Amino acid sequence: MNAHALTIGHLARETGTKVETIRFYEKSGLLPAPARTEGNYRSYDRAHLNRLSFIRRARDLGFSLDQIRDLLALSDDRGQSCAAVDAIAKEHRAEVERKITDLRSLKKELDRMIDQCGCGVVADCRIIESLSPRQ
Amino acid sequence: MNAHALTIGHLARETGTKVETIRFYEKSGLLPAPARTEGNYRSYDRAHLNRLSFIRRARDLGFSLDQIRDLLALSDDRGQSCAAVDAIAKEHRAEVERKITDLRSLKKELDRMIDQCGCGVVADCRIIESLSPRQ
DNA sequence: CTACAGTCTGTAGTGACTACAGGGTCAAGA
DNA sequence: TCTTGACCCTGTAGTCACTACAGACTGTAG
């Protein structure tokens, strides 16, 4: 393997990704299949490392693999309008906002439930009661 | 089928659950297997309906099926201390709080990213740039 | 009697990995 | 040269909480 080539293990360490996950990204078509060495090892270059870093950063920001696929396709087409990128990001942000709203009202309900618990026996438990259907 | 017996479809409508989901809960051991009619249809009673309502309400509140299994076991044991119930609920609330915190900092990052987008061409796109690794 | 709604079992798909099993490859030290 | 051990390969199955189907059977209204 030449000086610029990276094994899958190097790529994994550099990007904080598990080896299995990298192979999974390849199978999912997110990361192009690299060249192979004589011993059939994957041989990556800088471009692969950059692409994987992109994927991981986008995953950290909660983008789905489908969205990342789209973002990668757009970022490969440097002349295209950035509006599509903007749309994906905004759609994702809206989703995140929805989740925050949902979780906040969830937390309020849990707070109410837990506040009422006198911690006696289950028969009098307000938590169980508030989960049970009124007859 | 007698007057008090319910088909799986009735149960589904009453609780807003899909028929497949009810069967899945049975297979998962959350809902006890009901009696069968001559034609091999599941025949539910009020107790099943109550139990399924409990499960659905707990699911709406985001409890995992494992947690619900535990809550159901506790609620069946009316004399036991309510502390275990309280612990499950608090653990779940803590998890929800963690998620809210994570999503909020995520949203901040997305806001920053999106604010910078001048919506020109992809080559100048700040969103793509902030996803790309610095070389 | 026929149409059709409802139910049955069993299997496979979802998303984004993760965890093996059972092998092969490679580099360093004895 | 041999061996050890780290690394890599493929392929499959597991996770969670469902959901969707295929292909068959049952029940009911007209």
List the helices and strands and how they pair.
2 copies of one chain form a homodimer.
Chain A: H1 8-15, H2 19-27, E1 35-36, E2 42-43, H3 46-60, H4 65-75, H5 83-115, H6 126-131
The structure holds a DNA duplex (30 and 30 nucleotides).
Structure commentary:
2 copies of one chain form a homodimer. Chain A has 135 residues and is mainly alpha-helical. Chain A has a domain at 1-63: Multidrug-efflux Transporter Regulator, Chain: A, Domain 2 (Orthogonal Bundle). Chain A has helices spanning 8-15, 19-27, 46-60, 65-75, 83-115, 126-131; strands at residues 35-36, 42-43. In chain A, strands 1-2 form a two-stranded antiparallel ribbon. In chain A, a hairpin with a 5-residue loop joins strand 1 and strand 2. Chain A is elongated. Chains A and B meet through helix 3, helix 4, helix 5 and helix 6 of A and helix 3, helix 4, helix 5 and helix 6 of B. The structure holds a DNA duplex (30 and 30 nucleotides). Chains A, B: This is Helix-turn-helix domain-containing protein. Chains A, B: Residues 5-74 form the HTH merR-type domain. Chains A, B: Residues 89-116 form a coiled coil.
Briefly, what is this?
Chain A is mostly helical. Chain A is built from 6 helices and 2 strands.
Question: Key terms for this structure?
Answer:
homodimer; 135 residues; mainly alpha; Multidrug-efflux Transporter Regulator, Chain: A, Domain 2; two-stranded antiparallel sheet; DNA-binding
